[in-house]
Amino acid sequence: MMAARLLVRALRDPQGVQVADWNALVSAARAEQLLGSLAARMEGRAVPPRVAAMFEAARRDSERQRTQALWEAEMARRALAALDVAVVLLKGTAFHVAGLEASAGRSVGDLDILVPRDALGAVETALLAAGWEHLKSAGSYDDAYYRRWMHELPPLIHRDRDRMIDVHHTILPPTARPKPNSARMIADSVTLESGFRVPCPADLIIHAAAHLFADGDLAGGLRNLWDIDRLLREFDSPDFRQTLDERAQLHGLGSAVALALRLAHRLYGSPVADSRSRLSDRLFEPRLLARNGWGQEKRKALRFAFYVRSHWLRMPPLMLARHLWIKATR
Amino acid sequence: MKEILNLQIGPVAFRIGSAWRAPIEALAKLYEGYPAPAGGIADFTVRLEPEKPWRRFVRPSVAIRGDYILPDAAPLPLSLGLLAAEMGMNLQMALGQKNWLLLHAASVEKDGRALILTGESGAGKSTLSALLGERGWRLMGDEFALLDLDSGMLLPFPRAVSLKNGAITVMEAEAGAARFGPRLVGTPKGDIRHLRPNDEAIARMGEGAMPALILFPRFGPAAAVRGVGQAETFMRLTQASTNYVALGEPGFNALTRLVRGVPALAIDYPDTATAVGLVEDFRQELAA
User: Fold this and answer.
1) pTM above the 0.80 mark?
2) Among A64, A70, A158, A303, the residue to mutate for chain B (most B Cβ within 10 A)
3) What ipTM, to 2 d.p.?
4) Residue pLDDT, tens place only, A113-125
5) Domains in chain A: boundaries
6) Interface contact A50-B39, CB threshold 8 A
7) Measured CA distances, A283 to A140, A271, A286, A305, B268 (Å)
């Protein structure tokens, strides 16, 4: 059995799961960036002393990451306050700022924000003035590629705090076939008491699903799907299921969201309306679980197939050929 | 992984897996007498694996991986497999250790008082701590010192001492041949030879000590001693710590307490005999 399967079981049923090999569980969890979530889930369960100490450190680390994520959000808010632009926090930062269950033990890397496309220039200027700097040199292929073809600015990093910010104007590259309605995502976002904005719950799930199945090569997929499971459980109701379905259609992501829901149900037992699996789901599941008890990536051929698929989804064939040519020859 | 060794060093347990037998054999020999972790459970997993699948056999090249990975870490030839294992353990500590404040420092203990020796690479902290470890002090570690966040206690991490170039000869005159690993020639840092700490250091690896003095040693033309203020000590220790930032407030609190409670000195020394003499003087002053 792949250790990733054990990890999934432990997250799903932290009190009941039988763990014969703690090393395998911990290494798989670290490799999938889920140790913090696992530690949060297993709080209160009797575990061997060394594992208890690791979980304790992981929980402390999660707290620190949470503080840091909130601080980065606050720094961005201050930098952009004068612009009168709607700034919507995305992904991990949104979970933490909104205090959602998905934030329990969730690690946060970069700060991701969504702003209206016509405000991109002003936002970039304001961030540069507040100490963020370009990571890719201006005029390079990567820089030009981001600006022309990506759904975000080239990544910026803060010169003092060493933290990255990704400024999105939509949630998928413009070259991808689905065209999410980013204007609605911003317009229907929720303003919290703290003044921060986050996407409405359905859009949080849709963004996670888009990231997982319509864009990426499923790297980090178990964590993404865990986010989706937590959100589905926190907001589940007949009304919410309908809203989720409608908004998925609105963003042109009906099939990606349906796939995400089916897999979340299969792996984590998430509450969903339609859990009947399709034949193709049987390729996604082994890819998501391709991690052994030493934290190694397994099923290389399947992984590669999904890598190719991610590029195929992201860009038309001729553009893909050109992109891969430049990447390979420079 | 085909070849596996579990190692307990101080409070930290490692699981080391390798695609080849040689590095694990060398490691097991170097760490002879170290206990196995309770229940076989490790804090960190280290993997020594071929950089590319065919590199297992053709010009074997060891990639250093594990729970925590440095993406641009250069692989080593299989002849330096022991060094790869050591670097793998260091890497896990530097990137993943969140239980204690980790100082890139050597430490020794006598009469329950611990001495922290820190400074840039080449300042001689490995040599000095290894030498003190053979002259009546207990070697707590030559690479990392672990500061407990709650109690302020220093915990031992007595890994094999990594001796470089000239220091190898110095220590070959002090310790028996059985405690040395093979001489590794042509590493990125020149020649390296590992020295297993003595029996006392291993037997007492579970025993912490309160820090009593921080030293910043430096090779210099003449022996010199100057006091180092709390602000400077604090800044230098933040730079010497691999996880100060990652620990957040608890790390700040632990380091502030250390710096406020423990005096710090910078010492220049022209030769190791002088340095050992200076350290003995400090010990007598502290005891008085």
Assistant:
1) yes
2) A64
3) 0.92
4) 999 999 999 999 9
5) 3-329
6) yes
7) 37, 22, 6, 10, 64
